[in-house]
Amino acid sequence: MATLTDLADDYEFLDADDRYRLLIDLGKALEPMPDALKTDATLVRGCSAAVWVYPMAGDDGTLHFLADSNAAITKGIIALVLLTVQDRTPAEISAIDIEAALAPFDLRNQLSSNRTQGIPNMIALIRATAERYAR
C-alpha cells in the first residue's frame, strides 16, 4: 500500500470523481476482516455507515488493526486513517496527530457531512485502543 504522503500528493491533483475512486480503491485494498469480528464490541459508534475496527497486538509490541465498513467510501476513509497508525507501537500511535496527517485530504470539504461525521469517532477509538495497550 502507498504511503500517506504519496497518496496526498496524488490526491491533490485528482478531480472529485477520481478522489472518490481513490478512496474506494483504498477500501478494497484493506486486509479482509472476518465476519466473526464484526460485532457490537468492534463497531465504531456515531458513523452513518457501519464501521468495525479490531486491534491485534503483535509480538513486537505494535498494534495491527483490521477494519471494515458496509459503505465503500467509508471503508476508504478508515483505510486512510489506518495508514497513519498501522503496525506502530501504542506510544507511537498516541503521539501521532492523526487529524493533521489527514488534513491534506480535506475530507470535510471533499465529502458530505454524512460520510465524515464518524471520522473523529474512528480516531478516538484508535487512540483509546493505543492507550489501553500502552498500560
Q: Could you describe the 3D structure shown?
A:
The protein is mainly alpha-helical. The chain has a single domain, classed as Sufe protein. Chain: A. 53% of the residues lie in helices and 10% in strands. The protein is built from 8 helices and 2 strands; from the N terminus they run H-H-E-E-H-H-H-H-H-H. The protein has helices at residues 4-12, 16-28, 72-85, 90-95, 98-102, 107-110, 113-116, 119-134; strands spanning 51-57, 63-69. A two-stranded antiparallel ribbon has the order 1-2. A hairpin with a 5-residue loop joins strand 1 (51-57) and strand 2. Helix 2 (16-28) packs across helix 3 and helix 3 (72-85) runs parallel beside helix 8. The chain starts with a helix and ends with a helix.
Question: How are the SSEs ordered, and which strands pair?
Answer:
Layout: H1 4-12, H2 16-28, E1 51-57, E2 63-69, H3 72-85, H4 90-95, H5 98-102, H6 107-110, H7 113-116, H8 119-134
Antiparallel strand pairs: 1-2
Domain Fe-S metabolism associated: 13-128
Family: Belongs to the SufE family.
Protein name: SufE family protein
Q: How is the biggest beta sheet arranged?
A: 2 strands, antiparallel
Report the count of strand segments.
2
Please mark out the parts with pLDDT under 50 across 5 or more consecutive residues, or reply none.
Answer: none
Shape: globular
| SSE order, one letter for each helix or strand | HHEEHHHHHH
Helix content: 40-55%
CATH topology: Sufe protein. Chain: A
CATH architecture: Alpha-Beta Complex
Spatial sequence of strands, sheet with the most strands: 1-2
In angstroms, what is the radius of gyration? 14 Å
Instruction: Please tell me the total number of domains.
Output: 1
Portion in beta strands: 5-15%
So what's the CATH class? Answer: Alpha Beta
Mean pLDDT: 92
Number of separate helices = 8
Query: What structural class do the secondary elements suggest?
Result: mainly alpha
Domain Fe-S metabolism associated: 13-128
Organism: Sphingomonas plantiphila
Pfam family, one: SufE
Protein name: SufE family protein
